C-alpha cells in the first residue's frame, strides 16, 4: 500500500482520536462527529471496487490501515465497516452510510433476532448479521441494546417489525472468519502501542537514581513483551494476505490464534512494569490493555482458533506443518 495512505489516516487519528475522545465515547458521548470525519476521509471505502466508487484495494494493501484502528484504540467499528462495505458491494448490495458492526444472530421467541456481545454494538449504526443461508443488514437504532462488560459493546435484540425491514444479502463468507481477520490486525496495532508506551515508561521512570529500564529484570520483561508484539504483528499480516477482500481461513486461524495469545501476555507484562499506576482510570495504558482483553475474545480466542487450525492441518494430510504455514503466508 502507498505509504501516503497510511500516513494520511495516521495523521487524522493522531489529531482526532486522542485518549480523551476514546474516554468520552466510552462514557456515552455520541461518536457521530468523529465518524463524520472518518467518512469524509474516504478510507471506509478503501476495499470497495473502483467501479462502485471505492479505491479498489485488497486486504493485503490495507493491513496498516486496519492496524491503526488498534494503535489508537479507535472507539468505532472502522475496520469492520471497511470489510463490510466491500462485501456488501461485492454481493450487489449498496453499502449504507454509517458504521457497520459484524455479528452472528440467533432466533428468539415471536420471530425476533438476538445477537450476543456485539463488538461496537453500542456505537455502530448498522449490524451485518450472519444467518444460516444469508446476511441481514439491520439498523441498530431499531434494536434493544443491553450493556456488556465492555462499554462499546452491546447485546442487541430486534423484534419482528424491525426484521421485516431488514435488507437480505446472499451469504458470501463466514462472518466469524472476516471479523477474526480484522480483529487480529487491530490487536497487532494495540500490542505495538502497549509495547511502545511501556518501553517509554521504563526509560523515564526513575528508581534508585536510574531508569527502571536499566534493571535486568525489567529488561527481561521488555524483551519478552517485544517478542510477543512483533510475532503477533507478523501473524496478523499473514491473516491479511489476500488479493481481494476475502481472507483465507488457514491464514486467519494463524493470525487470530497468535495475536490473541499475545494479548494476555503483553497486557500482563505491561501492567507488571507499570506497577499499580497502569490500572488507574486516569492513565492511558488501560485504554489499550482493555482492548487487548476484549479483542482477544472477539470472533474466537486463541483456544478456539488453535483447535480450528489443528483440524485444518490434520485434514490437509501428510506433510510438514511448517511448510503448510509457509505456503499460507505467501502472497496469492
Report what the structure shows.
This protein has helices spanning 3-16, 19-26, 32-41, 63-71, 78-90, 160-164, 175-204, 216-239, 249-274, 285-297, 302-315, 321-329, and strands at residues 100-104, 106-108, 112-118, 126-130, 134-139, 144-147, 154-158, 167-170, 206-207, 210-211. A hairpin with a 6-residue loop joins strand 6 and strand 7. The chain has a domain at 175-329: Butyryl-CoA Dehydrogenase, subunit A, domain 3, CATH 1.20.140.10. It has 12 helices and 10 strands. 46% of the residues are buried. The chain has 332 residues and is α+β, with helices and mostly antiparallel strands. The protein is globular, with a radius of gyration of 20 Å.
CATH architecture of the domain at 175-329: Up-down Bundle
Helix tally?
12
Share of helix among residues? 40-55%
- Determine Rg (CA atoms, Å): 20 Å
Q: Kindly, what is the distance between the CA atoms of the first and last residues, rounded to a whole number of angstroms?
A: 16 Å
Which range does the strand content fall in?
5-15%
Quaternary state of the chains = single chain
The average pLDDT is 91
Q: What letter string, H or E per element, gives the SSE order?
A: HHHHHEEEEEEEHEHEEHHHHH
Strand order, largest beta sheet: 1-4-5-8
Major sheet details = 4 strands, mixed
Report the CATH superfamily of the domain at 175-329.
Answer: Butyryl-CoA Dehydrogenase, subunit A, domain 3
Task: Tell me the total number of β-strands.
Answer: 10
Shape designation: globular
Can you identify the CATH class of the domain at 175-329?
Mainly Alpha
Structural class: alpha+beta
Q: Briefly note the CATH topology name of the domain at 175-329.
A: Butyryl-CoA Dehydrogenase, subunit A, domain 3
| Poorly predicted residue ranges | none
Amino acid at each position: 500500500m502507498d505509504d501516503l495512505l497510511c500516513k494520511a489516516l495516521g495523521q487524522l487519528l493522531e489529531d482526532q482520536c486522542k485518549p480523551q475522545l476514546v474516554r468520552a465515547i466510552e462514557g456515552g458521548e455520541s461518536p457521530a462527529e468523529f465518524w463524520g470525519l472518518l467518512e469524509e476521509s474516504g478510507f471506509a471505502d478503501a476495499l470497495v471496487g473502483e467501479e462502485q466508487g471505492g479505491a479498489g484495494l485488497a486486504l493485503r494493501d490495507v493491513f496498516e490501515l486496519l492496524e491503526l484502528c488498534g494503535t489508537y484504540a479507535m472507539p468505532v467499528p472502522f475496520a469492520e465497516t471497511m470489510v463490510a462495505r466491500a462485501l456488501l458491494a461485492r454481493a450487489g448490495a449498496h453499502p449504507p452510510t454509517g458504521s457497520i458492526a459484524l455479528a452472528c444472530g440467533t432466533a428468539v421467541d415471536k420471530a425476533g433476532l438476538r445477537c450476543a456481545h456485539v463488538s461496537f454494538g453500542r456505537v455502530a449504526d448498522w449490524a451485518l448479521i450472519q444467518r444460516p443461508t444469508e446476511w441481514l443488514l439491520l439498523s441498530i437504532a431499531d434494536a434493544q441494546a443491553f450493556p456488556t462488560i465492555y462499554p462499546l459493546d452491546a447485546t442487541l435484540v430486534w423484534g419482528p417489525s424491525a426484521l421485516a425491514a431488514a435488507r437480505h444479502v446472499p451469504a458470501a463468507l463466514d462472518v466469524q472468519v472476516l471479523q477474526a481477520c480484522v480483529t487480529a490486525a487491530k490487536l497487532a496495532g494495540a500490542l505495538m502501542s502497549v509495547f511502545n508506551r511501556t518501553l517509554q515508561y521504563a526509560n523515564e521512570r526513575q528508581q534508585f537514581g536510574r531508569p527502571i529500564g536499566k534493571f535486568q529484570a525489567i529488561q527481561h520483561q521488555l524483551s519478552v513483551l517485544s517478542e510477543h508484539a512483533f510475532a503477533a504483528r507478523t501473524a496478523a499480516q499473514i491473516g491479511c494476505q489476500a488479493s481481494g477482500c476475502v481472507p483465507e481461513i488457514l491464514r486467519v486461524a494463524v493470525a487470530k490464534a497468535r495475536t490473541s495469545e499475545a494479548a494476555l501476555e503483553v497486557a500482563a507484562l505491561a501492567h507488571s512494569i507499570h506497577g499499580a499506576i497502569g490500572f488507574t482510570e486516569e492513565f492511558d495504558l488501560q485504554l489499550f490493555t482493555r482492548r487487548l482483553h476484549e479483542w482477544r475474545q472477539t470472533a474466537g480466542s486463541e483456544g478456539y482458533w488453535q483447535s480450528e487450525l489443528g483440524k485444518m492441518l490434520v485434514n490437509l494430510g501428510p506433510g510438514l506443518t511448517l511448510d503448510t504455514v509457509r505456503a499460507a503466508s505467501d502472497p496469492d
